[in-house]
Amino acid sequence: MKLKYLNQIEQATGPGRMELFRFGTAMLFIVAIMVVSSGMMPDNSNGVLLVAAAVIGGYMALNIGANDVANNVGPAVGSKALTIFWAIIIAAIFESAGAIIAGGDVVSTVKKGIIDPALIGDSDQFIWLMMGALLAASIWLNLATYVGAPVSTTHSIVGGVLGAGIAAGGVGVADWGQLATIASSWVISPVIGGFIAALTLYIIKRTITYQSDKLAAAARMVPFFMAIMGWAFSTYLILKGLKQIIKLDFITAALIGLLIAGVIYLISKILIAKRCTELENDKTSVSSLFTIPLIFSAALLSFAHGANDVANAVGPLAAINDAVFTATITSKAEIPLWVMLIGAVGISLGLALYGPKLIRVVGSEITELNQMRAFCVALAAAVTVIIASQLGLPVSSTHVAVGAVFGVGFLREAIKSNYMTIVEDIRMHHAQNDDGGAVLEQFLLEFEGADFDRKDQMIKTLKQNSMAAGLSKAERKKLRKQHKKQLVRRSAVYKIAAAWVITVPASGILAAIFYFTIKGMMI
């Protein structure tokens, strides 16, 4: 056989070998969990259930890493501030650190209090309920990752607990008021995240990139934006990421964050001023100034995510472990070290093996991100969680981050559409007035290089002359529709929105099925 055919065969089988490697590595992790958990088995009939629950918990952790962590590093990768390799390394380290250092010693056995454990018959039913919920949430996350839809792991486990809880204790076991509040976050989270990200991007454009001397504006404004990010992330980490280590109120956390922001402002002002002397006066250079903050944001978001969302994987497992050993149902359960390690290692491993797909979706397949836009997404994620927590609004970090990406994309789309309409109006005006191509190109060149206020004045003058030349409002509207460019992929919008809406009911139905299956097997 010719060498070129051998090379073609090797290239064709490459993806299959990589998939086999991923699957094999994941299975080794599951086997390791079986070995470790079997050494923790109590001397009763539920010992085997503990091993099975540990395996499912590990499977859940893998899926959290594959799906949810992409929100933290996707924008940095999409903007090319980080390569996907280094993004995975940074996220894995900080996710594990957040889970182990700040994940807490105690976790709520029933996430968000959506069902009343007192209405569950006995500890055996509670164990079956939590196993069904954990398995359902894991499978739903796996399916969502397969189709490339970033979904909320919190909503997945909420749906699982709800479905299995209703199957075990009836409709009355659920707290429907709490459920309604959680459902409201489907709209609240992406809208707030999208609005803050779009507003931040618009302010950056207005104060920096729309100025004629962009570097001077950047030297003045970028340290201010970095200080805001420093305040947001330090406050966010104190309130959310470190709450298991030290519990502070919002005012104290915000004041500490303000001190940190002041230090960041002073340091970045010196560094940015020096950096600006080496750059060209264009948008690309300005965008590159946001690279370092993006790398820090990816690490800090991953730490906070590991501290908070590891409970989605190990919370039900900790509840099962407690019920197996004590034969009681409690609202809080201690997290043994081996359970926490399953969550921390599983999330990191899931990210490394299957995370790149969702990282690409969040980072580049919804809209094109550069460092400046990705900075707005990361800042919006931290600020939204702070605002929501103080207002008592339930938000999903996944919905916030993806909503922020959508917000940036839709703002770009609106700006691009408006800009192209203006340019076409300019061309129409010069064509009707027979000014000639040289005059037109000179006007466009001046318009492109003008700052925001000068552009506004040029547009007003153009509109007056164009109206005198007979360019009607209807013609302008037609031009606007004709030249609108969609910079946000509508297929991604519809797919992700649909996945968000059906997450709770889908995982709930699956959990009810699994609960009855496990109950039938055990009885």
From TrEMBL:
Annotated compartments: Membrane
Transport recorded as keyword: yes
Transmembrane segments: 20-41, 47-70, 82-102, 126-149, 156-174, 186-204, 216-239, 245-267, 288-307, 335-354, 374-393, 492-518
InterPro entries assigned: Phos_transporter
Keywords: Membrane, Phosphate transport, Transmembrane, Transmembrane helix, Transport
Bilayer topology annotation: Multi-pass membrane protein
Name of the protein: Phosphate transporter
